[in-house]
Amino acid sequence: MGAGRLYPAVAVGGFRRYATYRAATAAGVFTNTVFGLILVYTYLALWDEKPHLGGYDQAQAVTYVWLGQALYSTLALQGGGVEKELMARIRTGEIAVDLYRPADLQLWWLASDMGRAVFQILGRGVVPFVFGALVFDMAVPDDPFAWAAFAVALLPAMVVSFGIRYLAALSVFWLMDGTGVSQAVMVLGIFCSGMVLPLNAFPGVLGDIVRALPWAAQLQMPADVLLGRTAPVAAYAFQAAWAVALLAAGRLVQAAATRRVVVQGG
Amino acid sequence: MAVDGGPGGAADGITGGAAGGRTGDGAVGGPEGAASAVRGDAARGGPSDGAFIELDRVEKVFDVRRRTGFLKRERRRVRAVDDLSFTVARGETVGYIGPNGAGKSTTIKMLTGILTPSGGRLRVAGIEPSRERTRLAQRIGVVFGQRTTLWWDLPLVDSYRLMHRMYRIPDARYRANLDRLVEHLDLGPLLDTPVRQLSLGQRMRGDIAAALLHDPEVLYLDEPTIGLDVISKARVRDFLRELRDERGTTVLLTTHDLQDIEQLCSRVMVIDHGRLMYDGPLAGLHEAGESERILVVDLDRELPPVDAPAPARVVKVEGPRQWLAFPSSVSAAPLVARIAAEYPLVDLSVREPDIEAVIARMYAGQGNRAASRPPTSIA
Ligand SMILES: Nc1ncnc2c1ncn2[C@@H]1O[C@H](COP(=O)(O)OP(=O)(O)OP(=O)(O)O)[C@@H](O)[C@H]1O
Ligand SMILES: [Mg+2]
Predict the structure, then answer these.
(1) Judgement on whether residues B224 and B334 belong to the same structural domain of the protein
(2) Residues B272 and B297 in one domain
(3) Does one domain contain both B180 and B327?
(4) Is residue B196 part of a domain?
(5) Are residues B241 and B310 in the same domain?
(6) Does the keyword Transmembrane apply (chain A) (predicted)?
(7) Amino acid B303: pLDDT
(8) B307 and B278, same structural domain?
(9) Contact between B224 and B232 (Cβ < 8 Å)
(10) CA of A260 to nearest chain B CA: how many angstroms apart?
């Protein structure tokens, strides 16, 4: 018994919930595949002009594209995980129900988002990636250890992703509306996570900055681990540092938000 | 941000049973204009002996900021709960009523610990809710009629499994409670239905079960029958009656439906503008509000207004149908008997006053006090 069994149960619930949205999942797979195709042809043209851009050869660049499409919804790179629901609950005051429960708000939503993320790897990630691997020449390692190291890197990537979106959601306690924040999360996500262009290919100081931001922990790090471009331990350390920092910040903001609710009623 | 919690200015009202003594049946106490509580004869004794819920001069003040123009903001204070004192004994079922915005939900939120009082003292089972919310949560159950605690997209039973873990309910007890609740609330066929597909009445029963799985000592129900049809209301009431009689759970129930109170609560508290206006049995409330019931009689033809014995009087005539008002505290039987004997009576019905009307009258009747009448209402 104990709390050790609550959060896994919440995660299982999160997984099962997203599993019920079958049509949305199918539509998502289709969209990711189409976007993947567009990006691949763009990248191929770009890499023809600038071979070894960002240190990737063409096969690696193509692999990066399909990894991005496969992880797009899992890492909620443009938002759209449980934070949408959390924002709605804060806005409508339903968050009050969550507060009187004997459960930790952050862990609850983290668990729920983890369940969602795991479902979306399977539901939305696998098909576009396999499609890409069948149709294009990709730099997919056949070393199982590379895959294992990649899988390990996904976990802190998910936590970092959650950490960013949780902070965004909590801002609704003060802003009363999540639309602007959601848009900011989306724009930052597209740009800083390397969805458009690998962060390795960003030039100069800009590149140094985006590679140090938490968004780099989401797609870029797992991709580089899989492609053998970085030592897994270094990637894990970077990711873990951001995960811890974001979760800690989340706890602080959560405490302030809770105080505000219990004093001011939301 | 919290407003200073010192005692307010005028200490009026006869709120504490011990402090003010008990006023007689239906007598309206307190000085003119002061929002003083009226206590009927079911009022408790001293505030602390055996009290499970205890409020002593509790206040809740909200700061409301409004934009009134470019960069201009107006700050307003809303006194949602004002100098509220009452106690509820273990096992009591108490109705908590009042008009919209009276402060009912705010009170319940303070009782659960999700709102801290701005002033006063509040204890549930000896615990200060806002300080030890998590510890208290194990001992209370809450149903917010307008919100659900259930997982929207998942089958009902998944929410229950989550409660099992969240409240750390021992497996055997969880299974026994679930079986019992499923049977009594008739949830069997719904367990595998996603919550979003449940009707309002079904969802409400689902929510009530969710709130009771961990055997709470007290159940707060904030409008549990809101939006339900007659049959669903009856179901919920039947269940709550059983809960009260067989399990001795303390229940605090807010509602706008007087029938909920009539059928479930031996005691009713009325709150308005955050202040306790009345605390006592339902019958006494009618007297305090000097409320009237309406007897509608259908005669077999159009006749002049019937000659009714005072205090009853005809208030409306429409063809063969006539409306007679009489005090709620007086039995309808003699009046009916007399009309039946002297007029060609075809049909009749008695309309109970609705709670908002009773409260409105109570307010109006604050100054000119009511005469003491024995509680003889039949209802
Ligand atoms: N978070 C809040 N911020 C500001 N004012 C609030 C807040 N919550 C409640 N109020 C105000 O406090 C007062 C009491 O509200 P409350 O919700 O307790 O009423 P209620 O008795 O439950 O009414 P209803 O029957 O409509 O549910 C109202 O004037 C309301 O506007
Ligand atoms: Mg309310």
Answers:
(1) no
(2) no
(3) no
(4) yes
(5) no
(6) yes
(7) 86
(8) no
(9) no
(10) 9
Phi/psi at A184 (5° precision): -60, -45
Contacts with B148 from chain A: Cβ below 8 Å: 97
Residue having the nearest C-alpha atom to atom 31 of ligand 1: B101
Nearest to B328, CA basis, from B265, B233, B258, B270: B258
Cβ-defined contact of B134 to A102 (cutoff 8 Å): yes
Q: Are B112 and A100 in contact (CB < 8 Å)?
A: yes
CA of B111 to the centre of ligand 1 (A): 15
- Cβ count within 10 A of residue B320: 15
Does B222 reside within a domain?
Answer: yes
pLDDT in tens, A125-162: 999 999 999 999 999 999 999 999 999 999 999 999 99
B18 alpha carbon – ligand 1 mean position (Å) = 30
Identify the CATH number of the domain in which residue B99 sits.
3.40.50.300
Q: What residues pack around ion ligand 2 (CB closer than 5 A)?
A: B 105
**Quick one: tokens of B368?**
């000119």
Q: Whose CA is nearest to atom 18 of ligand 1?
A: B103
Does residue B45 belong to any structural domain of this protein?
A: no
Least confident of A146-155, B337-346, B355-364: B355-364
What is the number of domains present in chain B? 2
What separation in Å is there between the alpha carbon of B6 and the centre of ligand 1? Answer: 22
Domain carrying residue B215: 51-285
Widest distance between CA atoms in chain B: 73
B225 shares its domain with B330: no
Query: Within this chain, do residues B73 and B152 fall inside the same structural domain, yes or no?
Result: yes
Of the pLDDT bands very low, low, confident and very high (cuts 50, 70, 90), residue B221 is very high
Does the CB atom of residue B118 touch ligand 1 within 6 A? no
How many CB pairs lie under 8 A apart between chains A and B? 73
Domain check: are B192 and B313 in the same one? no
Whether B4 maps to a domain, the answer reads: no
Q: Which of A13, A20, A96 sits opposite B109 (nearest CB)?
A: A96
CATH no. for residue B313?
3.30.70
Which of B115, B122, B221 is the best residue to mutate to test the A interface, defined by the most A CB atoms within 10 Å of its own CB?
Answer: B115
State the DSSP string of A190-240. Answer: HHHTTSSS-GGGS-HHHHHHHHHSGGGGTTHHHHHHHTT-S-HHHHHHHHH
Residue in B closest to A89 by C-alpha: B147
Rounded CA separation B236/B226 (Å): 11
